[in-house]
Design a protein that fits this description.
The chain is of the alpha+beta class and 199 residues long. It folds into two domains: 44 residues; 134 residues, lipopolysaccharide transport protein A fold, CATH 2.60.450. It is built from one helix and nine strands, in the order H-E-E-E-E-E-E-E-E-E. The protein has a nine-stranded antiparallel beta sheet, with no helix packed on it.
């Protein structure tokens, strides 16, 4: 049987201690690097609004006559953002002082300088004479007083149904212009009748 001298035992103990120290040092360096990375990681916090308004309501008039009214169950303003963010939206359009159409959507963004609006989420327009228009996004151009979208839409007028990609129309849908890919169940893929069809 091989005999181990005391000197060999001491040398082995020193080597084991050195190896353990090296492992501990590497572990400490690794943990320090991870903590630094965590501290430097960008924050994922959502920016909070600077103002929240409940029961939002505004009106635009021209020469004393109401053009439209806009309602939101809640409205929020954010720092550096020109848009007012509305939730559970309703917009009433008027012609010659009489209600002509109603728009509803889940949310909307309204530019407080131009009053242009982007309605988003389950957007529907119903005119007072029964025409309807639906899309996921509809834009309101306040200067031109027109509604438009580049997305899929569905419009109805009685038993006529028109679907397509992209349109522009007045709120009453009496002058509806379809941009492309029109598909309808009317004989000649006509749009809503009563003053204007797609062109």
């Amino acid at each position: 049987m091989e005999r181990v001298e005391p000197m060999d035992r001491s040398l082995r103990a020193v080597r084991a201690a050195a190896l353990l120290s090296l492992v501990l040092l590497l572990a400490a360096v690794f943990l320090t690097a991870c903590e630094k990375e965590a501290r430097e990681a960008p924050s994922a916090e959502v920016e909070a609004p600077i103002q929240t308004i409940y029961g939002y309501h505004t009106v635009e008039t021209h020469l004393g006559v109401v053009r439209w009214e806009l309602f939101g169950v809640k409205a929020q303003r954010y720092s550096g953002d020109e848009d007012l963010h509305l939730f559970t939206v309703k917009m009433l359009f008027y012609e010659d002082g009489q209600l002509s159409a109603t728009l509803t959507s889940q949310k909307a963004k309204v530019n407080e300088n131009t009053h242009d609006m982007v309605a988003q989420g389950d957007v529907h327009i119903v005119t007072e004479d029964g025409r309807t228009l639906s899309s996921e996004v509809l834009y309101w151009d306040n200067e031109r007083q027109l509604i438009h979208t580049d997305l899929f839409f569905r419009a109805t007028d009685g038993d006529q149904v028109l679907t397509g990609i992209g349109l522009e129309t007045d709120p009453k849908m009496t002058d509806l212009v379809v941009k492309e890919r029109v598909e309808g169940d009317a004989a000649e893929a006509r749009g809503p009748s009563g003053g204007g069809g797609p062109r």
